[in-house]
Amino acid sequence: MCIFVFMIFLTGGTGLVGSHILMSLLKDNFNVKALRRETSKLDSCKKVFSYYNLESLYNNINWCIGNINDVVLLEEQMAECDVVIHAAALVSFHKKDIDNLKKHNIEGTANVMNIALSLNYKKCIYISSVATLGRKTISNQVDESCIFKFNNQESNYSYSKYYAEQEVWRASNEGLEVVILNPSIILGPGNWDKGSSKIFQRIYQGLKFYTTGSSGYVDVIDIANITLLFLKNNIVNERFVLNGTNISYRDAFDLIADELGVKRATIKVTPLLKELAWRLEKIRSFIINKPSLLTKETAASSMRNVSYSSEKIKNLLDYNFISFEDSVKRNCRFFKQDLI
Q1: What is the pLDDT of residue 3?
Q2: Among 298, 62, 338, residue whose Cα is nearest residue 193
Q3: 202: in domain
Q4: Is the distance from CB of 157 to CB of 128 less than 8 angstroms?
Q5: Positive or negative CA dihedral for 213, 215, 217, 223?
Q6: Which one, out of 66, 89, 112, 135, has a CA that is 20 to 30 A from the CA of 80?
Q7: In the prediction, which pLDDT does 295 show?
Q8: What is the pLDDT of residues 87-112, one digit of tens each?
Q9: Which domain holds residue 72?
């Protein structure tokens, strides 16, 4: 049995990425404290552990109560640890959430970095997003060298994660050793009412439209595995794109539909239809009082063709990402368990 002498502080432990990182840490015998809000629901995290038949590990979680915007309580909880994995984030593409994005993603990250510095933490691994990278490249693939450009095509979420990264780099300049991970669209089981997992729900419920765009996808297991690798090596003060597959939205949606046993989307979205769709969705979400998956920003991004390169981390760690097909098959199998 391998026992690690340091204590890890994990934020965002109840989320899709955080729960998988937490599960991997416990499987590998790391000492970890997981932060959660007092009002946080643990159902999704518990479900993740049950998917992998690891209920016994779930019972061993060392939860601590607090949030990244309560500095006093956060410092008390971080005091016993010396490595932080910062996976907590608000993901939203709605204009009404701009203040919450600033408070949670930027101010919250600044709080975590400041306390880690004051407590002389050994290392920070920050789970960021490819949304913080520039879109235009010579090779037509986005990689770590791409520089974020300020323009009206970027979402408020992208801006909030970009400025959060600046807080991490600022902490690095002040002496904290950091690693930033930039995953593309994340595939994983959990609460399919939230985040990127919601696409499985929409396709299962009968998604009729497909767009001409494309993007990159990465399995949440890859994110958890790579996070552990960086805990065990001495690589610091670098960023890494995490992307397993570049694929068109139509091909991605078709494969998910086939695995869920539902009809494929058959209506191609034109630029005119795109403009109509997000406006109708806005009205619908207002009537039913639920957030919409499609906003003006997400509608625009669905028409773009973007691909991401993980060559840096593949070459450095000799890492092989889970294929898109294998990821979809496994995650659809998990989701279908909840439908029985």
Answers
A1: 41
A2: 338
A3: no
A4: no
A5: negative
A6: 89
A7: 63
A8: 999 988 878 889 999 999 999 999 99
A9: 7-187+217-245+307-323
**How far is the C-alpha of 76 from the C-alpha of 16, rounded, in Å?**
25
Q: Do residues 26 and 1 make contact, with C-beta atoms less than 8 angstroms apart? A: no
Token representation of residue 213: 């765009």
Measure the CA–CA gap between 126 and 180, rounded to whole angstroms: 5
140 within 8 A of 307, measured Cβ to Cβ: yes
Q: Is residue 289, in this structure, part of any structural domain at all?
A: no
Q: Which residues of the chain have pLDDT under 50?
A: 1-3, 278
* The pLDDT value given to residue 118: 97
Amino acid in position 112? V
Place of tokens 């991004």: 301
The contacts of residue 148 (CB under 8 Å, 6+ apart) are: 132, 133, 134, 154, 158, 162
| 237 within a domain of the structure (yes/no) | yes
Q: How many CA atoms lie within 13 A of 320 on its CB side?
A: 2
* Separation CA 262–CA 336 (nearest Å): 12
Q: According to the model, what pLDDT value does residue 11 have?
A: 97
CB 75 within 8 A of CB 66: no
